[in-house]
Structure formats: structure tokens, C-alpha cells
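Narrative of activities, Objective 1.

The group set out to show that a structural description can be obtained from nothing but a protein's sequence at a throughput compatible with the screening campaign. Below is one input-output pair from the validation batch, recorded exactly as produced.
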Amino acid sequence: MRRTAVLAADDQGVVVTGTRRFLTPDDVDRLYARAAGLLSSGRGDAPDASTLVIRIRTASGWHETSVRGDGDRGRADEFMAAATRAGTDAGAYRSERVAVVVVADSDGGSDVRPWPLSTPATGMPGYPSRPCLVTDAAAVLAAVRTATVDTRWTTDDGHRVALRVRPLLAYEKSCIDLGS
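Output recorded for this entry:
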């Protein structure tokens, strides 16, 4: 029985993308053997921008490791390279649902656009502190297609905010799942 792994790919503007790899049981066994002693069960504290996090979710739970700052990243880098090459290419990862997350409230940015969603910002769950909305991918991806990380969107209450859009993984159903 072959498994599908989803790996991070190059972002496209404000859209986080992924690629798929088909893995055989032997591929999975080799990856776990390589990861022996590297990954731990459970979830740690939220990392900062200088932290490399490798996270694997299996039927038995989460396994992860974190390397902070410029620490010894050798084994982690080797594992990531092996995971990226494991199995066979299965193309881009596409999801019918995406999470739209407001990641910054800023007056910066010279590319200011009207709000791209049919749901107003003030109607997003978590607004104003941690707004996130799960919605249909097609409409959102079309609306943010030409946006860059410097694009700001004007909310219905007059703020200029930056957005990130990412596809939901198979086990994710809501914004709460993004952090679990």
C-alpha cells in the first residue's frame, strides 16, 4: 500500500504551496530508520523564525524535532534531504479548501487592495486577534493570484493587513487544526 507525503514547496506570492510524494512501505521504513533518535512524540512550544521544525504526523500521533538558531542542524538537514527525495514525485498538492490567515496588521505596503473574500474580515473567526477562515480554494486562489507578500488588503473596519493562504491537509478541517 503506498502512502502520500505532502512537502512544502516554494510559495507563490501569499499562497503556501506543497508537493506530493508517493511512498512505499519500504520508503517509510527507511525514513523512520534515518529519523531514529531525531524525532520525539508530542508537540513543543511555538517556534520563532530562527527555528527549524521537522514534523511528521502518523496514525499514532505527532513526531517532531526542533533545531533553534544556528545550532547543530546536520542530522536534521540530512533527514529533510532524504525525505524530499524519498518515493516518487506525485505532482503539486491541491486542496479544495484553504485557510486564509491574517498575519499582520500594517499600514506598510504600496500594493493596497480591496478585501478579497466574500466574508468580511470582521466576520472571520478569531478577528481581530487571530483571524483565520477556512473556505473554498478556487475563489480565494483566483482573488489573490497576483498578490505578493507586500500586498496589503483593506478590511471592512479600515485596517490594512497581510494575508497568507494555505491548502488544508487531509486531516485538517478548521483553523484550530493548523496548529495541532
